[in-house]
Amino acid sequence: MFKKYTIPLLEIHVTDHCNLNCKGCSHFSNIADDYFINPHKLHYQLIEISKKFNVNKIALIGGEPLLHPDLTNCILTVRRIFKNSQINIVTNGILIPSLTDSFLQLAAKNECHFTISKYPITSDKFLNYLDIVSKYNQFISVYVRNFFRKYINIKGDSDIKETYRSCYMKQCITLKDENIYHCPFSIYVQYFNKKFNQNITVDKGINIYKADAKEIIKYIENPIETCKFCTFCQDKKALYDIELTKEAKMEDWIL
Q1: Is residue 180 within 8 Å of 206, Cβ to Cβ?
Q2: What is the pLDDT of residues 188-242, one digit of tens each?
Q3: Distance (Å, rounded) from C-alpha 180 to C-alpha 182?
Q4: For 139, which DSSP code?
Q5: Could you tell me whether strands 239-241 and 173-176 are parallel, antiparallel, or unpaired per DSSP bridges?
Q6: Please, what is the end-to-end C-alpha distance for the chain in angstroms?
Q7: Residues 97, 124: contact at Cβ < 8 Å?
Q8: Are 11 and 61 in contact (CB under 8 A)?
Q9: Of 64, 73, 68, which is closest to residue 94 (Cα–Cα)?
């Protein structure tokens, strides 16, 4: 009898861009192109993944996912295919007051968990966000973020094995188009390259249609070339206070 592998967490960036301009955003959302995932294409990608894997948790993330004009259809697509997986909407909360009752009811009906990031820059309105969501949805978690991290070693001489071993982002397996990627950094650093004319290795990922489950797991469980440019084996000098910026600079990401 065929036994499926289990992916603990699959992240789906339903948008790449954001409504905040956080200095050194870990997903490069403040310098990303405007992008909305196509729910129709997502449907077929998730069907293919469901043939090969069980998925414990699926995070609809960004960027800011509440910017997506058809987030309802994204939620329904995920729930239709992964009936027992936990769905998380990971948001900064700013757009929660603009959500309709019908959307909040649909999210509750489909047992969506709201993971609301609490940043210093939004903390004064945070209780309001919680009050709105809690009218319909009992599944709420708060992610307190006071610091971001400078992720990039521009020299590209990090020890890839040590970086991979110490990296918490390796649990953030990312689906982008038809590929699975190690983590958001490994694919979205392309926006850093584009903005600042750099050549940091962007991972090619592994195609969900062409690779079997064992090949995908092997890819996930081993370091990649992009790890050379990551600072997770560096010390805490990489941490800095979260703040908004009007103009992104290379040094916002470089240790």
Answers
A1: yes
A2: 999 999 999 999 999 999 999 999 999 999 999 999 999 999 987 666 567 888 8
A3: 7
A4: -
A5: unpaired
A6: 49
A7: no
A8: yes
A9: 64
